[in-house]
C-alpha cells in the first residue's frame, strides 16, 4: 500500500514505499513474460492518460499495464479534446472525475501540474513528467533495472551524464537513488548543470567533466539533450557537444569493468551517447523499456486495488 492516493514525485515516497513498488514489479515482470499468469486484478477500473507533451514509452507502457491487469485504458487525445477550446486543466480533470475515472496519468510542461490536478479530483493522479521537476515512474523503472542488473543499489556509484538542468529524470533519480544509498554523480556542461542539484540527496555530487563523472562508475546513465526546453542554445552544435560531453566507448575504460549503460529514451544518437555505446552488450536500454511496463503495472495495482 502507498500512503497517498497519488504518485506525484519520488520525494514524497519513503524508502519502504519505493522498495514495495520494486518488489511488486518483479511479480509483474513475470506476468509480462508469461501471459498465462495474468489475471484481471484491476477489472472495472478505468485509467485515462492526459499527455500535454509527447510520449512513446510512458504513455504506451501505462496503456499496456492496464491491459495486462484487466483495467480499461483511455487516452484523452489532448490535440482533439476541448483543451483546444481553452478548457482549463482543473475543469478537464473535474470533467473526467465525474465520469468515474479511477486514475489519471498526466504529463505536462508546467512544474506542479500533477499536484494541481490531484488537489481537485478524487481519482488517483500519477505524474508522468511535469516540466523539469519530476518523472517518478521513470526513476522507479530505472531503480528496478539497476536492482535487476546489479542485485542492489546501496553503495553503487551511479553517474548521470548530460542535460541535467532540464531533466526531470535526473532529479527523480538523484532523489530516489540517494534514498536507497547509492553515490550519485551528476555530470555535464556548466550551462546545463544548475548549482543547487546536490541538495537533492545526501550522496549527490556535481562535476563538470564527463571523464571525472564516470570514473569508477557501476552505472552510467545518459540523458537526452532536451532541445525543446532550452530558451537559448547552451552549446555551439551537436558535434561539439558530443566531442566534449558525449559518452564514447573509449571513456568507459574509466568506469568499473562491469559497468552498465542506461538511458531513459528517446536517445539523440551520436549526441549524448555514441551509437556504439547505445548498442553495446552492457547497455540495458531495451530492458529498461520492458521494465517500464512492469513498474507501471505495480504502481497501478498499489494505487487502484483498494480504491
Ligand atoms: N523516457 C520517457 O519518458 O520516454 P517517452 O517520452 O517516450 O515517454
CATH class of the largest domain: Alpha Beta
Weakly predicted, low-confidence segments? none
What kind of assembly state do the chains in view correspond to? single chain
For this structure, what is the CATH homologous superfamily of the largest domain? Aspartate/ornithine carbamoyltransferase
What does the radius of gyration come to?
19 Å
Secondary-structure-based class equals alpha/beta
Q: How far apart are the termini?
A: 11 Å
- Helicity range of the residues? 25-40%
Largest sheet report: 5 strands, parallel
Rounded mean pLDDT is: 94
Order of strands across the main sheet: 7-6-5-8-9
Shape: globular
Total of domains: 2
Order of SSEs: HEHEHEHEHEHEEHEHEHH
CATH architecture of the largest domain: 3-Layer(aba) Sandwich
Jot down its keywords.
single chain, alpha/beta, Rossmann fold, 2 domains, five-stranded parallel beta sheet, four-stranded parallel beta sheet, 14% strand, binds phosphoric acid mono(formamide)ester
Question: Could you walk me through the main structural features you see in this protein, from its secondary elements to its overall organization?
Answer:
The protein folds into two domains: 10-134 and 289-304, 3-Layer(aba) Sandwich (Rossmann fold), CATH 3.40.50.1370; 136-284, Aspartate/ornithine carbamoyltransferase (Rossmann fold), CATH 3.40.50. The protein contains ten helices and nine strands. It has helices spanning 15-33, 57-69, 89-98, 113-120, 136-150, 168-179, 210-214, 238-245, 275-278, 285-304; strands at 46-51, 72-75, 103-108, 124-130, 157-161, 183-187, 204-207, 219-222, 260-262. It has a five-stranded parallel beta sheet with strand order 7-6-5-8-9. Strands 2-1-3-4 form a four-stranded parallel beta sheet, sandwiched between helices. α6 links the parallel β5 (157-161) and β6 (183-187). The longest helix has 20 residues, at 285-304. The mean pLDDT is 94. Bound molecules: phosphoric acid mono(formamide)ester (CP). Phosphoric acid mono(formamide)ester is lined by residues 55-58, 138, 264-266.
Amino acid at each position: 500500500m502507498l500512503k497517498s492516493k497519488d504518485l506525484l514525485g519520488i520525494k514524497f515516497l519513503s524508502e519502504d514505499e519505493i522498495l514495495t513498488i520494486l518488489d511488486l514489479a518483479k511479480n509483474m515482470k513475470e506476468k509480462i513474460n508469461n501471459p498465462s499468469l495474468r489475471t484481471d486484478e484491476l477489472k472495472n477500473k478505468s485509467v485515462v492518460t492526459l499527455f500535454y507533451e509527447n510520449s512513446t514509452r510512458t504513455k504506451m507502457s501505462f496503456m499496456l499495464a492496464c491491459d495486462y491487469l484487466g483495467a480499461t485504458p483511455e487516452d484523452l487525445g489532448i490535440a482533439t479534446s476541448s483543451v483546444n477550446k481553452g478548457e482549463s486543466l482543473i475543469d478537464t480533470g473535474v470533467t473526467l472525475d465525474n465520469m468515474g475515472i479511477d486514475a489519471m496519468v498526466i504529463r505536462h510542461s508546467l512544474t506542479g501540474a500533477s499536484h494541481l490536478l490531484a488537489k481537485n479530483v478524487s481519482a488517483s493522479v500519477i505524474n508522468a513528467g511535469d516540466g523539469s521537476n519530476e518523472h517518478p515512474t521513470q526513476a522507479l523503472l530505472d531503480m528496478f533495472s539497476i536492482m535487476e542488473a546489479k542485485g542492489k543499489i546501496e553503495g553503487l556509484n551511479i553517474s548521470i551524464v548530460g542535460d541535467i538542468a532540464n531533466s526531470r529524470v535526473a532529479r527523480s533519480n538523484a532523489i530516489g537513488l540517494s534514498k536507497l544509498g547509492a553515490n550519485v554523480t551528476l555530470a555535464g556542461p556548466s550551462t546545463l548543470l544548475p548549482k543547487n542539484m546536490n541538495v537533492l540527496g545526501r550522496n549527490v555530487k556535481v562535476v563538470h567533466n564527463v571523464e571525472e563523472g564516470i570514473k569508477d562508475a557501476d552505472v552510467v546513465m545518459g540523458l537526452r539533450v532536451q532541445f525543446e526546453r532550452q530558451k537559448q542554445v547552451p552549446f555551439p552544435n551537436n558535434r561539439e557537444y558530443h566531442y566534449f560531453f558525449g559518452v564514447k566507448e573509449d571513456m568507459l575504460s574509466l568506469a568499473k569493468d562491469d559497468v552498465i549503460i542506461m538511458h531513459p529514451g528517446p536517445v539523440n544518437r551520436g549526441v549524448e551517447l555514441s551509437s556504439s555505446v547505445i548498442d553495446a552488450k552492457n547497455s540495458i536500454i531495451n530492458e529498461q523499456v520492458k521494465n517500464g511496463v512492469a513498474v507501471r503495472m505495480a504502481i497501478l495495482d498499489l494505487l487502484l486495488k483498494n480504491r
